[in-house]
Write the C-alpha cells for this entry.
Amino acid sequence: MLKEHYKIVMKLTRIARRIAIRMIAFYPPFLFSGIKVRRINLSPLTYRTTLKRRWWNQNAVGTHFGGSLFSMTDPFIMLVLIAELGDDYIIWDKESRIEFRIATTGAVSATHSVSKERIDEIRQTCLESPIYPQFTIDITDAKGKLVARVHKTLYVKKRPRLLTSTTGSV
C-alpha cells in the first residue's frame, strides 16, 4: 500500500515540477527585480536569465544591484539537475559565492545548463554517498564582457529505495 502511495506522490511531484519549470518566471523575487527567465532548451534543460538596470534595481551609485545579479543564478543549476536526474535523487543548493568583475549599467545575462556528460558523471559518482559538485555561471553584458562570476556547490545524493519485506508489505 505504501509503495503505491509513493508512486502516486512521485507522479504528482513530476507534474508539479513541470509546472514550476514553466512558472519560474513569475516567482516574485525575479518578477519584481526585473529578472527575465526563459527556458531555451529542453534537452539538456537550459535557462537564460537577463536583467536590465532600472531605477528600482540599481544600487546607490547607479549600477546593477549585486543582489539582483546574484539572484539571476539561483536556483537554476539545481532545477536543471532535478529535471535531468529525476525523483531518485535529493538535490540542494549548498553554497554560492559571487565575484564581481566590473560595474555596469547595461543589460546583463546568464545561461544555466549542465552537459549530458556532467549529468552522467554526477549520476555515477553519488551512488554510495552524497557528492558536492561545483558549477560556475558567468554573468555577461551585451558585448560578452564578464560582469560577475558565480560559483555554486550543490548537494546530490541518491535517494534510498523503499524497503519491502518478503510478505509484500512495507
The mean pLDDT is 84. Residues 2-23 form the longest helix (22 residues).
